[in-house]
Amino acid sequence: MRYGNESSMRYATLRWVVICVFALLAGRLCYIQLIDTRYKEMATSNIIRRVVQYPSRGEVLDRRGEYLVQSRECYDVMVVSKDIPREGFDTLRMASILEISPERLRSQLEKAARYPRAPFLVTNYVSQQAKLAFDECYFKGFYTVFRTARQYPRKIGGNLLGYVGEVSENDLKRWPYYSAGDYIGVGGVESAYEVELRGRKGVKVETTDTHGAIKGSYMDGAFDTLPVNGRRLVSTIDARLQAFAEELMVGKVGAVVAIEPSTGEILVMASSPTYDPDELVGRQRGNHYMALQENVQQPLFNRAVKAKYPPGSTFKLVQGLIGMQEGVLRPGDTHPCHEGFTVGNRKVKCHSHRSPVDLRDAVATSCNAYFCYVFRDIISNPKYGSVKRGLEVWHEYVESFGFGRTLDSDFIGEGQGNVPSTEDYDRMYNSRWNWGTPISLSIGQGEMGCTPLQMANLAAIVANRGYYYIPHIVKQIEGRDSIDARFYERQYTKVESRYFEPIVEGMWRGVNVWGTSRNAALPGLDVCGKTGTAQNPHGRDHSTFLSFAPKDNPRIAISVYVENGGFGATIALPIASLIEELYLTDTICRPEMVRYVKDHVVYYPYYDKLRAKKERK
């Protein structure tokens, strides 16, 4: 009897255990189906599409408010390979709508198949009209993404503005912000101000059905983020002046840089040959880019900030200033010139002019011999005990003028030029050299090299009588009160202001009284100028001219450099003078000079040889 009761109790306990388990399971199932939404959300997440929302890239204006760079609407077509139907997909129809070849479309789809679950770019720069036709066809697995593309109303300033291209592998490693297929600024303003121009991407989270059709925003847009458009930039460039400079430089190789001395703002930065920036936008960008790359004259190379040229006679201004500061030269000191300066068995030749001359007339006539004497006296100064120490002191002075280093402008990739040191000469001459060895530096030749930007900055230094503002290309950034503080700070040279007046007087005489720069005169504007003829081992000498105007309270400082252009007064001077005239008077009253510049033919044997060599290959 007792055994039966125990069995009955065990059965009852087991029954209740079973009932409780089923009750828990049933309760859990009801909770999952009726109350808990996590699993529903997890199921939904399998058909969630995260679409990047690209911001509109910031636009760039000139100093007067005229557009240099604008953005226009376009679209990228993306595909998720695994969502493409195996049958019934009309590649010919899609290719026709997107205006690409069927072969190109198939190639992109084959690449996309390697990453079946990841969005892959099929084609870009799709117009709004083509996008609407594409949407009407409803191609499963494909979708469009809004973008903006650049356009250039003036079609100027290719090297100055830069362009926008697809990010490289190095960009992806360096910047976590970017993903494959994103665009980034390359060169010029586009690169230097990339962070300001690009804005910030947003994300739109969408739900789709099993066929890929968009059903709406996921959780009513709770996880969406809006894109933030890039900032608008106001550049320092004068668009009309830039266009005129590029027009005058057509058919020539070199650069033009003009600066407002009182601010350091760059008015003109023209590198020649240049290119139409619209060529590097759109689907033909790759073909145009390769053609520009293969051009032996390197139109993609910004000579204005990267080329290293011998400054020639324009550098004599620096020698005179250092000589006065060091006490080895007084403005009234005269030196003879017998068509050159002889040191040992070498002779630095000079053109015929009256002799002897003082400092002012030496600047006006561009006397080589005079500045050979000055340079000799600087580095042979007895107070330094040796020529090497004298050259080191000279080097320090020259660096204070911005040579042999970058100017810290807002241009990425700015060149340093070259100012030779005592170590350089020790290495080249096995430590056996004297004051006569580097004598060619006295006239801006030999190992001396500088960029057109540095030469224009020298003009600004002389115009300001001893200081400069760091040259910069952007005047204002949308949403900010000011640009970088370094652009507002005066940068002083090691030469006192009082020593600049004789140099300024000499430059003024060279234009307005007698000298090598007479053709640069503009009535009533007191133009000051200095010609330069830089020796060149690859053909005719280079032509260069440095100038500022007016003499007092100057508004523009300019440097022009034309490779193989001959004497400084031959072609560089008229180009600079015409640009000054347009800027200062708002008109051109010398059409005959414009015709002369445009018709002036410059021969480039060096580039001809490169082109012939390339063709033979």
Describe this structure in words.
The model has no long low-confidence stretch (mean pLDDT 90). The longest helix is centred in the N-terminal third of the chain and has 34 residues, at 2-35. With 617 residues, the protein is of the alpha+beta class. The protein has 22 helices and 20 strands. 41% of the residues are buried. The radius of gyration is 35 Å and the shape is elongated. Helix 10 (239-248) runs antiparallel to helix 20, helix 13 (316-326) packs across helix 15 and helix 14 packs across helix 19. 37% of the residues lie in helices and 19% in strands. Strand 19 (542-549) and strand 20 (556-562) form a beta hairpin. The protein has a domain at 239-610: DD-peptidase/beta-lactamase superfamily (Beta-lactamase, 3-Layer(aba) Sandwich), CATH 3.40.710. The strands form 6 sheets. Strands 2, 3, 4, 5, 10 and 16 form a 6-stranded mixed sheet that branches. A 5-stranded antiparallel sheet has the order 12-11-20-19-18, with helices on both faces.
Distance between the termini: 113 Å
Give me the secondary-structure category.
alpha+beta
Main β-sheet description:
6 strands, mixed
* Percent strand: 15-25%
| Radius of gyration from the alpha-carbon trace, in angstroms | 35 Å
CATH class designation of one domain? Alpha Beta
In round numbers, the mean pLDDT is 90
Quick structural overview:
This protein is 37% helix and 19% strand. It has 617 residues and is of the alpha+beta class.
